[in-house]
User: Fold these one by one.
Assistant:
Number 1:
Amino acid sequence: MTLKQNFSISSRKLLLTAVLLALIPFAERAYAFVNEAISLALEAATPYVEQGFEVREDNWSGEVEPGKPLLVRHQLFRGNEYWFWAGTSWPGATVKVDIFDSDGNSVGLESFSKNAYAGVRALPEKTATYFIRVLTQHDPEKAKADEVNEPVDGVGEFTGMVDWGLVYGYR
Amino acid sequence: MMKRFFHSFPFQREGVAVAVAAIAIAMVGGSLFAQEGVGAPERIDLSNFPGEIVDKVVVPIPAEIFAVLGKLDEPNWTGAISIPESTGDTTERAILALTFGSLVGEGFIAVQAKSGEEIQKIGREVLSVSESLGLANAVRPHSLAIIEAAGSRDWERVREELDSTQQTVRMTMEKLRDDELSELVSLGGWLRGTNVVTTLIREAFREDKAELLNQPGLITYFREMLGSMKGPSKSSPQIRTILTGLARMEAIITDKGGISEEDIKELSEISLSMLEEYYFVTKSPEGKTGN
C-alpha cells in the first residue's frame, strides 16, 4: 500500500468519524444512517474498498424471520466486477449471501460468511437483472454467548425477527 | 483485529507469518475465520421462491455504466457534458426532483471527463435546485464537498459525494413522505445517464457496448412507478411524455436481448425527447448531447 493510499484511507476514516460525530445531535435524522446491519455490511466491505471497489450509498435493509430467504433483484453490467456484502446485528444471528442469474443459476465466484456478515463476488457474463439471496439464521444459545451484559427483562428479547442489511460495490 | 488479519494475510509472504497462521488455524479449528464458499445452491427456482421478494429497487448510478464504457472504449466525455442554462426556475416539485437527478448524472459525466470546472458548476447548480426543493440544508455540505474535491481533482471522492448527495436528498424526501419525488430523482439520473451512453455508443457502435442498455427490469420499474403516481404531477405534460417515452423504450429493450445500432439511435432520440421536457431547453437545442 502506498503512502498516498494510506493517507487517503486515514483521511476517509477521519472524515467518516467526523460525520458520525456531527450527526449525534441529530439523533433522529442520524438514525437512517446508523443502521447497524448496514454498518456491519459496510465493515465487511472495507477491505475491498482498498482494492478499488466503489461502494454504493443506496442499499437494502429490513427485518426478517430467521430461515426465511430474501430475494433482491438488481441490475448488473457485464464488464464490471461486483461484491455484495450482507450484515445482521442481532445477537446470535448469522447471515449468508448468494447470487443467481435470471435462470436461477448460481453465479457467485467466491463467498465468505462469518457470523454477522457475509459476502459474495460476481463477474456478470451478461448485462441483466440478477438475484441476490440473503439468508439469516438465529441460534438462541449463541445469542446468550453473544450478550455482553446481563439481559434486562423485555429489552433485546428475540421476538422472531432479525435485522438484515445488504450493500454492494463495483469496479 | 480479525478483520485486519483477514485483509492483510494474502499480502504476507514471510515464513513466520505463514507458520503463525498455520498454528492459529490448527488451534482454533478455523472457527474464527471466514468460511469460504459456504454452500450456495447451484440453482434455485425463481418461479417458486420459498421466501420474500424484496420490493426495493436500487437504481444503478450512471458511473457504474460509465465504468464499463470506459473499459471498452475511450469515449469523448468532455463533449458529452451539457449543463442546462437554467435548472431551478420551475416550482413544480416533480420537475425539480427529475432535474436534480439529471444534474447529479451530469456530474458523473463531468467526473469521467475529469473536468473540475464543470463539476464545480454542477455542484453549485445542484445546490440551487435543492434550494428550490427546500432541501438546501441537507445538500449544502455535499455541494461544498463536491466543489472542494473537484478543485483537488479527487475524482473518486467526487463520485462518492455525488452518490451521497443523491442518497441524502432521496432519504430526506422519503422522511417527508415524498417517496414519489425520491424515485423521480433516481429516474432523472438514469435518464441523463442513458441519454449520454446511447449518444456515445452511436458514435462508435459495438454490440458489447449496446448490451449496456439491456435494462428491461429498470425501465418497467420506472414506467410502473410513474404510472402509479398519485400526486397532481401525474397528469402534467412532462410526466406523461416521459411515461410514453419509457413505454417506447420498453418495446425496444426486451428480455430477448440483442440491441441493434438502429435501436441505439432510437433510444438516444427517445431519451433526449424526455430530457427536453424538463432538463434541456427545447427552444434552443444547439449543442445538446444527443442532437
Number 2:
Amino acid sequence: MTATDPLLRLDNVTRRFGGLVAVNDISFQIHSGEVKGLIGPNGAGKSTTFDLVTGVRPPSSGEVYFRGQRVTRQPAHTRSPMGMARTFQIVRLFSGLSVLENVQLGLHPKFPDGIVRSLLRLGSLSGQERASRERAMDLLAFVGLADRAGHAIDQLTLGQLRLVDIARALAADPVLLMLDEPAAGLNDAETDNLGEMLVRLRKQGLSMLLVEHDIDFIMKACDSIVVMDHGVKIADGTPAEVARNPDVIAAYFGRRAVHAAA
Amino acid sequence: MAGDTVPEAPRAPTIIPVLVILALGIVLPFLLSSGFHLRLAMLVWIYAILCMGFNLLYGYSGQISLGSPAFYAIGGYAFAMLQTMLGMGPVSAFVGSLLLVAVLSLLIGLPLLRLRTHYLAMATLAFMLVQNGVANRWINFTGGQSGVAVPPLEWGGEPIGRMGIYFVILALAAAVFILHDFLIRSHLGRAMQAIRDDETAAQALGVKVTRMKLAVLVLSAVMAAIAGVCFGITSLRVDPSLSEFHVLVSLLTIVVVGGLGTRFGPILGSIIVVLLPQLLHEFGELETVVYGLFILLFLLFLPHGLSGLLERRDWRLRRTGKKPAPAVARDLKEELP
Amino acid sequence: MLMKLSYLLLAGLTNGSVYGLIGLSLSVIYGSSRVINFAQGEFVMLGAMSAVLFMVTLALPWPLAMLAMIAVVIVAALALDYGVYRPLTKRKAAPLTIMIGTLAAAIVVYGLAFLLWGPDQKFVPPVLSLTPVRIGFLVTNTQQVSLIVIFLAFLIATWYLLYRTRFGLTVRATGVNPKVALLMGIRSERIVQFSFIFSATISGVAGMMVGPLLGGHVGMGLLLTVKGFMAAILGGLGSPFAAAAGGIAIGMMEALMAGYGTSLYAEPAIFVLILLVLIVRPYGLLGDYEAERR
C-alpha cells in the first residue's frame, strides 16, 4: 500500500437479492483520516453496502479493497484483525457477559487462536488477560462508562449501550471504524455526547464510515458524504457540495435541509 | 495496585476451588465404608466428565447437541473392542477410542453445526437413536442387548482393585475438570459465550465462529468418550443402555440442577443426580413423579441451578436488584475479604 | 406383488397418520409459542389409556368415553400451560429451557400414569370395529380407516382455522412476533393456551384411535414424541401441513423398509434418512420459512 492508496475502496460493487438490485454499481473511497458519511432515504441500499464492506455478505459483483488488499469475499471475522471494526444499528452486545467483558471481546483477535494454541501459551495468558482488562477499562473510561464495568448489559440505557458498542469496536485498535446509525434512538443530549466523542476520535486520526439518518448529525461529523438512492450513488463530495446537489435535494433532502446546510 | 482501577474480573477467579474439589475427591474413598458407595462416587465423576463436555457445548457455546450419549457409548464400545478384537493394550485402546470419536464428531459436526436450535437438537437426537439402534441390533458386532465385556485393567499382571480404578477415574476427571475450568475462565470461554449470545456480532469482532463451534463439539465428544471409557473400566461391560434416552434425561437434569453454563454445575448436578434416586427410593412408586417435579422446580425457582446460589458474580448480583447501585455494591465488595 | 405393496402402503398410511397428527400438534404449539413440546406423545398415551379407563373399567359408551378422554387431555394441557409454559416464559427462559421443562412434565405425566395403569401392556377397546372389511383386494377394518379419515379431518380443520378465520390470523401473528401481536391487542397467552388445548385434543383422539392397533402402555409416549418430532423436522416445523406430510412420509418409509428390507433396521434407517435430509435442507423438506429468514 502506498501513501496515496485509499484506506477503503469500493469498485463497482453490486448486490442483487433475487431480481432486486439492492446496491447498483457503487464506487467510493475512504482515505486515511477521513470521516465519510453514507446517507440516503429508506431502502437506498445503505445497510446492504455496509454489510458488503464488513463482510456479512459478499457482493454479487465488483470488488472491495481494504488497506490495499482485496477483501471482497473474505468472511466477516477477517476484518477485525486487519483493522476494521464495526458497530451495530440494533445494538448487539452479548447479554450473558458483563459490560467490561463485552469490551474485552473486542480484543479477541490479539489472543492466541484456538484451544491448543492457547494451552501452549498458558504462561503468558494471565498477563495478557490482565492487560486486556486494563485496556478495556481505559476504553470504558474514554466513553465515560468506567463505573458500569461490572454491570449486566440489561441494566444500561440505549445511549450507554451504543457507547459500549463503540468502546468494544475501538478495542481492536481499528484504523477504520464503521458506524451503523449510531445516533438512532438516542435523545438530543445523548446524540450530542456521541457527536463530541466522534470529534475526539477524529482528532486522533481514526477514519470512519458513518451510516446515518440524522442529517444535522452527519453534516457536522463528516469530511465528505456519499448519497445513495434506490441502490445507486447519486452524489459524493463535501457536506456543502452534497447539500447543493440538485439530485440529492430531489431525492432526499427537501427544502429544510438545504437551508440547514447553507 | 491494579485492583483499584480494574474491577475484579469475573473471568479470572482463582483455580483454588477446583483444587479443593479434587482434594476432596482424593480423600473421599477413604471415608466411604462400602463398595457400593465407592461405585456411586465413581458414577458421580463419570457423569461429571460427560456433562462438562455438554456444558461447554450447550451451556457456554449455545449449541444444543443431544448426541453426547452416543459419543459416550461409542467411546466405551471402542475402548472395549479395540482391546478384544484388535488386541490393543488399554492405553492405546484409550487413545484410539478418543481419536475415533474425535474424527467421528468432526465428520458429523461439519454438516450439522449449520443447523440451529431445535433442528440441531433433533438431528443430533437422530444420531443418538441411530447409534443406539445399531448397538442394539448389530448383534454379531456389538453383542446386542448384552453388549461387550471390557477387559479389567491390570497392573503388573494383577487386576487393579476398586480403589485403584477410582483413582484412575479421578485422574481423568481432574484432567477434564481443569481443562473445562481453564477454557471457561480464559478468552476462549468469553468467545464461546459471545457465540451463544450473538453469532454475527462475535464474527464481526474476529471470533472464528464456525471453527470454534466445531472445536467445542469435538472436545465435548472426546470428553463424553472419556466418560464412556471410565464407565467401561468400572462396570467391565458396555451395552446399549449407555445411549438410551434415560442417559439424555440424566444429562439434561444435571445441567439444569447444577446450573447451565456455570463452572461447578456439572459436578454439583452429577452429585445430585447420582444420589437422588437413592433418596427417592423412599417415595416408592411415586419416584418418577417426584423426579420430574424436582427438575421442574429447579427450572422454575433456581434457573441458574445450584451453582447460581454459590457463584453469583457481582454483576449478576446487581442484575437481580431493580436499580443499579454501583457505588454501594462496590463498597460492599471491598468490605468482603 | 401389488397386494403386498398396497398392504404396506395402507399400514404406512395408518402409522403415518398418527405420526402426522403428532407432528401437526407439535407444529401448532411451535407456531404460536416457539416451544417444542416434549410431552406431546404423553397426550397420545393419555388418549389410549383413558380409553381403557373409560370404556373398560367404567364401561362407558364410546362417545361419552371420548368426551371424558378429551376432558382428561385438556386438563393435562392446561396443567402444562399453567405449570410449565407460563411460569417459564414469565422468567424469560429460552425456548430450549422450556423444552427441557416440557420433558420434565412428560416424566411427571408418565409417572402418574404408571401409578394408575402399571407397567403392563393393556388392550385398548376399539371405538369402531376391528372386524376385517374387504375393499377390493385390501383387507382392513373400520378402526384403521377411521384413523386415516380423522387425520384428514384434522388437517382440514387446522387449515380452516389457521387460514380462514380471524382467530387463525391472530394465531399466526403471535407466532411470528408475540410482542407486536400484543401491541395489536392480541393476547398471546390466550393463543398459546388455545394451541395447547387444540393440539392435546388432536393427540388424544389419535391415541384413542390408534390404541387398539398398537396396544396401550404408559411408556408409549416417548417414542411417539420422537417420531412426531422427526415428522415435524422432516417436513418443516414452521408449517403444520409440512409436519403432517413428514409424518406420512415416515410412516410410509417405515412400512416399506419393514416390508422389503429388514424390519430390524427400519427405525435406525429412518433416523439416518432424517439426518441426511437435514444436512441437505437445514430447515426441513418443505422448509421453515420463518426460521430461514432469520
